[in-house]
Amino acid sequence: xxxxxxxxxxxxxxxxxxxxxxxxxxxxxxxxxxxxxxxxxxxxxxxxxxxxxxxxxxxxxxxxxxxxxxxxxxxxxxxxxxxxxxxxxxxxxxxxxxxxxxxxxxxxxxxxxxxxxxxxxxxxxxxxxxxxxxxxxxxxxxxxxxxxxxxxxxxxxxxxxxxxxxxxxxxxxxxxxxxxxxxxxxxxxxxxxxxxxxxxxxxxxxxxxxxxxxxxxxxxxxxxxxxxxxxxxxxxxxxxxxxxxxxxxxxxxxxxxxxxxxxxxxxxxxxxxxxxxxxxxxxxxxxxxxxxxxxxxxxxxxxxxxxxxxxxxxxxxxxxxxxxxxxxxxxx
Length: 332
Ligand SMILES: [Zn+2]
Ligand SMILES: [Zn+2]
What we know:
Blueprint: E1 3-8, E2 16-22, E3 27-32, H1 44-47, E4 52-54, H2 60-63, H3 66-73, E5 81-86, H4 89-97, E6 111-117, E7 121-128, E8 137-143, E9 149-150, E10 154-162, E11 166-174, E12 177-180, H5 182-187, H6 218-225, E13 226-229, E14 233-237, H7 244-254, E15 259-263, H8 271-276, H9 282-292, E16 296-300, H10 308-319, E17 325-326
Parallel strand pairs: 3-4, 4-5, 5-6, 14-15, 15-16, 16-17
Antiparallel strand pairs: 1-2, 2-3, 6-7, 7-8, 9-10, 10-11, 11-14, 12-13
Helix pairs in contact: 7-9, 9-10
């Protein structure tokens, strides 16, 4: 598996998700939400390496841990701090950037890019540490499409959810990986070496590879030794309500996704409260997982109203519909 993910935060506390996409050459890190204490579980050096932070929405329990992220990264050189979230994310984050005294920052180069995702367009604004984040600078605007981010190794897609306000769910797909099967190569009597670099880029099938390829051209050898592994995928969905019809629509959008991390704020006996507060019950989360045919469902974001025996019951409730439901390992 080249995606690994870590649920952050404890049961009945704020939760977040850290996704690592491992290519073999590098690791890309995506953080989903930033509740209180969530980043305490991640080393400073790893927080420094986070590539993008995606907010579902900006309720306090999803942004209260932002200061730790910011403290680690406000002045990081070379890599901007990249944030994504629904409309209003830019104003709220600018208030966070400005919530400190800045008088010793001269010569520091840090900056932040804030992407606000509306149904029609994504607007990006840049904020500079050198200016104490005082004003936004317009960056590119792009039309909102099914695809938020198209990196060479992964893609991120949004799902718009109803939480009384917009909450955005995110699906991360690792791109399919193509590797050279060294055993197959040796089986052809060929030896690995730098010449194989030609196989790693799309080239003309007729390209002559030289004597190391035993007379084979690029297309022929690629067919014999390249193996494609389908990319892994994980979805993060939190703070929303969905009726039966909306669960069907969501499940269709999640088809092919392997792992689902989903809120289960309430037990179904408290469905009235769930509706009132725009949250799911464990039963509804399990229905989404079952209809989307994901490989596993990890329940997060459970209400503090329950005693331990009760919140553990959320898992039994979900398992009755989707047997592969589970909690994060550190919640056991
Ligand atoms: Zn919320
Ligand atoms: Zn919440």
